[in-house]
Every structure is written in structure tokens, then in C-alpha cells.
Prior knowledge:
- Helix content is 81%, strand content 0%.
- It is built from 11 helices and no strands.
- The longest helix has 32 residues, at 85-116.
Amino acid sequence: MNAVAAARSDNVTDSSTQSRTGLIDRLGLGWFFRLLSSSIGQKFVMGVTGLLLCGFLVAHLAGNMLLFVGEKSFNEYAHALHAQWELLAIAEAGLLLLFLAHIYLAFATTIGNLKARTNTYTLRQTKVPGRIIGANSWMFISGSVVLGFVILHLIDLRFALRSGIDYLVESDPGAPFHNTVAVLSNPLSRVIYFVGVIVLGVHLSHGFSSAFQSVGFNHPKYTPMIKILGKIFAVVIAVGFASIVVFVPGMWK
Ligand code: HEM
């Protein structure tokens, strides 16, 4: 390409970039994209999205605990949720955005970290002597396993699309309870769900306290307490979901 053509293509790129930036500013989202352009900003947004996802887990676990109470309670809860379909649609869209932002930033920060490290020695070195893989890498690996689990779980129970499961159609009043127990009664599902929720616990055991640091909460007195709280939170979530996987199918088959 000659210099004139190159300059023209630069102008085209400049003007399209300017009009995009203009639109973003007009929408009032300039601050958000400026935040995402720095690694501190990326970590901040990752921390906020992570904490909001923790909130979803608490609500989801509480609702699923009704599986222990019985068919009637769980179906009533699920139908009450679905009756508010406008609110549910907004909540689902928000949840999807949270997941997508969290996953995108996990990739962006991991690639950024890898680029910042120049050779295999520093790549394998961690702050903890004797440990080959650092906390960030474990977070990326455990997060990827949880992502795989969530995709399978949505196919299983949000869209009821797994082959070989004896689903009831959504309009059947008994569908929420029946379909959940049918999925969990499948031996392969039980293994996958068990591994999925334990790895989720591993992810949370570091992620919960790390999110507080990412949003700027770092205090000599409270940070050690938040670390302990993070471990307790991880155990409660993992054991809570795992107890459903282990006991519910046997109780209601
Ligand atoms: C034994 C454990 C679990 C059971 C029995 C369970 C059950 C369910 C059921 C029945 C639904 C369908 C809800 C509906 O259509 O209204 C659902 C949706 C969902 N679950 Fe789970 N779940 C479990 C664990 C998890 C975990 C560990 C996560 C996240 C890491 C998770 C994330 C989701 C998400 C994102 C949805 C879609 C929410 C929506 O669109 O409303 N679930 N789950």
C-alpha cells in the first residue's frame, strides 16, 4: 500500500474510531470503557461482577434447598418465579451480562498477565516457593471448569435439551421438580455435577476474598477476616450444592 492509500485508510480508521467513541460518550458509557482500558479497572469490574455472581449463588442455593422439603414446595417456588416472567427476563439478561463480562475479563487479564511475563522461568514462577502454578492460573483453570459445568447445566435444566433424560414438558405443573430429579438421577450427571460444584468451591475459596481486594477493599484488620469468610462461603456453597447432588435423587426416586 502506498503512503496516500495508507493515510486514507488511517483517516477512515480514525473517523470510525471517533464516531464510535462519540456514540459511547453520548450513551454516557465513556467512563466504563476508560475503566476497562486499564488493568486495575479490569480487575475492579471483575471483582464487582464476581461478587454479584456470588449473590446469585446464594439465592440459587436457597431456592434449590426446597428440593429437600418436597415436590410441592419446589414446584410452587419455581412457578412463583416463572409467574413474574418480565422480572425474570430482566434478571436473566442481567445474569448473562454478568457472566459474559466476568468471563471476558478473565481472558483479558490472563492474556495480559501472560504477555507481561517474558520467559518460561518467570512464567512458571509464583509468589509461593515450591508451587508451580500461581493463584491466577488456578482461578483461570477452575473458572473454565465451572463455565463448562454451567453450559451443561443450562442445557440440562434451563432448556431441558439433554438427550436420554425423561423430561416433562414445561407446561406440566410437576415439571420443575420432576425434571431436576430426572437430571440428577442420571449417574453421569451426578458425577459431573459433583465435580462441577466442588471446583466451584475451589474457585470461590480464592475468588471471594480476591474480589474484595480488586474492588479496593484492603485493610490490615479486615482483610484476614474476609479471607476466612471467603473460605467459609466457598465451603457452604460447595457442600450445599453437593448435598443436593448426593441426597436428592435417592430421597425422591
Ligand atoms: C445441584 C445443584 C443445582 C441444581 C439442582 C440446580 C437447579 C437449577 C434449575 C432447576 C434451574 C432452572 C431454573 C428455571 O428454569 O427457572 C437452574 C438454572 C440455572 N442454574 Fe442451577 N442448579 C444447581 C447448581 C448450579 C450452580 C453451581 C450454578 C452456577 C455455578 C448454577 C447456575 C444456574 C444458572 C446460571 C441458571 C439459569 C438461571 C435462569 O436462567 O434463570 N446452578 N438451576
